[in-house]
Write a structure and sequence with these properties.
The complex is a heterodimer of chains A (268) and B (283). Chain A is of the alpha/beta class and 268 residues long. Chain A is 35% helix and 25% strand. Chain A has 10 helices and 12 strands. In chain A, the strands form 3 sheets. Chain A has a 6-stranded mixed beta sheet, with helices on both faces. The longest helix of chain A has 14 residues. Chain A is globular. Chain B is mainly alpha-helical and 283 residues long. Helices cover 77% and strands 0% of the residues of chain B. In chain B, α1 packs across α10, α5 crosses α7 and α9 runs antiparallel to α10. The longest helix of chain B is centred in the N-terminal third of the chain and has 42 residues. The relative contact order of chain B is 0.15. The chains are: A alpha/beta (268), B mainly alpha (283). Chains A and B meet through α2, α3 and α6 of A and α6 and α7 of B. The complex binds adenosine-5'-triphosphate (ATP) and magnesium ion (MG). Adenosine-5'-triphosphate binds next to β4 and α1 of chain A.
């Protein structure tokens, strides 16, 4: 077993073969608040990992560590080791912009930029110089929108502003925007909690398709959603990672009482 | 029952008082506008825009003063607003809670409410005394100093209205802060910042005191930035106090022009702000 780290043992099921990302003994502090405690967890390729747990248990905090979005929060401090393809993402020579191109994030509230639909999708590629000319940018915008399942709905109105779309469309636009920089991992923080059931279902279908190309980590409060879209599920409680395993196992036969209480409580 | 009656009475009394206050304010405004229109319209003529300010006893226009005012206002905005916008950006996006920001904000508030004559004296000491003479550029600098606090404040406020998620999303796509500011925050706050510019123009285009000590006045046509220049506020000030009927008429006409310009600018600012709030869907 190579699962022993100085900070403690790793939970059964927390590590996977050939992990894309690995977190080891990660702690997050906000000033004095200890929000994530000693969490070790792997992210597998071509899989959806669901993070569940009661409000305030540290899901978002952990998620934001994975592409260093915590860097922008005043007073936030991250400890521990997080690697992407074996590379420490917190080491000094890591270019944060580059990291975020590889590990994208979609937030709870869709936030299209005050620009056209086209410009929204082209925003990331322009920053990273991903398209050589107008033609390849057009192509990149189209494939990104196609992958996000939005192309058919917007192909005739690419020059309209992103805010003119419905909430669900806006969220898919944000996903397209993230996909456009061709990331390896997509983080999603409650991506459907601001959407109606039909729009949510579309996003869920989309997540299942995206899995073939990207590793996905999704935070959700919706147990059915976690059960539907993920292959692995991790349960957080007050900053601790309590249990992690295949989604099937977690929902049918949880090993920890805390997990069982939470899941069954939600199922009613 | 009694209590309710009392409350109703109190409510009614307050309503009546605030209505009265509003009416009083509106009545003053109406009186001012009416007087301005009555006297100003009489002095309105094509000559206003084609002839220079005349010597006493002759007919003339306000062309040199209009030009001087326009140029100094333009220069003042060109110099002042970039400083205001950039400083406002610093306060909203970079040094939000730093000690420097607290100091800047405080100074800006002082500047915002400082009597403009103080600004005039400041530039007088700093520029006019050193150059040895009054000049258009000194006037423009004084106006610039007046424009800074207005644009700074609106820029900061408008940037703070941009939903924080937008900034995070841009950062999450790998944009550095300067990029986020230029490509996302400024476009999102554009109408608000433009409103600030219009308000600043409205503020400085009617200022007299700072120009008295800096640009002074000029009877003749001049485009020289290094020399005294005519301008509407000072011309109005001097001509209104003069004993000559022609000069007084010109002063009224000038006052009407300034008031209408400011009125239009303020209305434009409001319309743009309303557009900002509905179009962008900000709460
Ligand atoms: N910026 C911050 N500053 C200070 N404390 C914070 C900050 N963000 C989160 N916290 C605290 O850290 C803890 C974990 O927060 P986090 O947002 O990660 O929880 P969460 O599991 O995502 O909750 P939710 O399900 O409600 O989104 C909470 O106690 C929260 O109050
Ligand atoms: Mg959260």
């Amino acid at each position: 077993m190579d699962t022993f780290t100085p900070a403690g043992t790793i939970l059964n099921g927390a590590s996977v073969q050939d992990a894309l990302m690995s977190a080891r003994a990660v702690n997050v502090f906000y000033a004095t608040k200890h929000a994530v405690k000693n969490v070790s967890l792997d992210i597998a390729r071509h899989q959806v990992l669901a993070l569940i747990g009661p409000s305030g248990c540290g899901k978002s905090s952990f998620l934001r560590c994975l592409n260093r979005m915590n860097d922008t929060i005043q007073g936030a401090r991250v400890e521990g080791l997080i690697t992407l393809d074996g590379q420490d993402i917190y080491e000094a020579r890591q270019d944060v912009a580059q990291l975020r191109a590889r590990v994208g994030i979609v937030f709870q509230k869709p936030t299209p930029f005050p620009q056209s639909i086209y410009a929204n999708v082209a925003y990331g590629p322009r920053i990273h110089g991903l398209a050589k000319d107008r033609g390849s940018m057009d192509e990149l915008v189209q494939t990104s929108l196609e992958r996000a399942g939005l192309w058919e709905e917007v192909k005739d109105r690419l020059s309209q502003t992103g805010t003119s779309l419905s909430g669900g469309q806006q969220q898919r636009l944000c996903i397209a925007r993230t996909i456009a920089v061709n990331p390896e991992v997509i983080l999603m923080d409650e991506p459907t909690s601001a959407l109606d059931p039909i729009a949510s279902a579309k996003i869920e279908d989309l997540i299942d398709v995206l899995r073939t190309n990207y590793a996905i980590v999704i935070v959700t409060h919706n147990m059915q959603q976690a059960a539907r879209v993920s292959q692995r599920t991790a349960y957080f409680h007050m900053g601790d990672l309590v249990e992690v395993g295949t989604t099937n196992m977690m929902f049918t036969n949880p090993q920890q009482k805390l997990t069982e209480d939470y899941i069954s409580g939600r199922f009613g | 029952m009694n209590r309710r009656l009392l409350r109703k009475l109190r409510n009614g009394a307050f309503l009546a008082l605030s209505l009265l206050a509003t009416l009083l304010g509106l009545a003053c405004l109406a009186a001012i506008l009416w007087t301005l229109l009555a006297h100003g319209l009489a002095g309105m003529s094509g000559q206003l825009f084609t002839q220079m300010t005349p010597p006493p006893g002759e007919k003339g226009g306000l062309l040199n003063a209009l030009y001087g005012s326009a140029m100094m206002t333009l220069l003042g905005i060109l110099i002042g607003s970039p400083i205001g916008v950039l400083a406002g950006t610093y306060l909203a996006e970079y040094g939000k809670n730093s000690r420097l920001s607290v100091v800047i904000r405080f100074i800006n508030d002082v500047l915002l409410s400082a009597p403009s004559i103080i600004i005039g004296l400041f530039i007088y000491e700093l520029v006019v005394v050193r150059m040895g003479h009054f000049s258009a550029i000194a006037g423009a600098l004084a106006l610039a100093v007046l424009a800074i606090p207005v644009t700074l404040r609106t820029t900061e406020d408008m940037l703070n209205l941009v939903p924080p998620g937008m900034k995070d999303s841009s950062a999450a796509l790998g944009a550095y802060p300067w990029r986020t500011t230029l490509s996302v925050l400024y476009p999102a706050a554009r109408s608000g910042i433009v409103t600030g510019l219009l308000l600043a123009i409205a503020r400085i285009s009617g200022e007299t005191a700072p120009l008295l000590f800096t640009a002074l006045n000029n009877q003749f046509w001049s485009t020289n930035l290094n020399a005294p220049i005519a301008n509407l506020p000072v011309v109005i000030f001097l001509y209104a106090l003069s004993p000559y009927k022609d000069w007084q008429d010109l002063a009224w006409a000038g006052a009407l022009i300034i008031t209408m310009t400011i009125l239009l600018l303020s209305i434009a600012a409001r319309v743009i702000l309303a557009y900002l709030q509905t179009e962008r869907g900000f709460k």
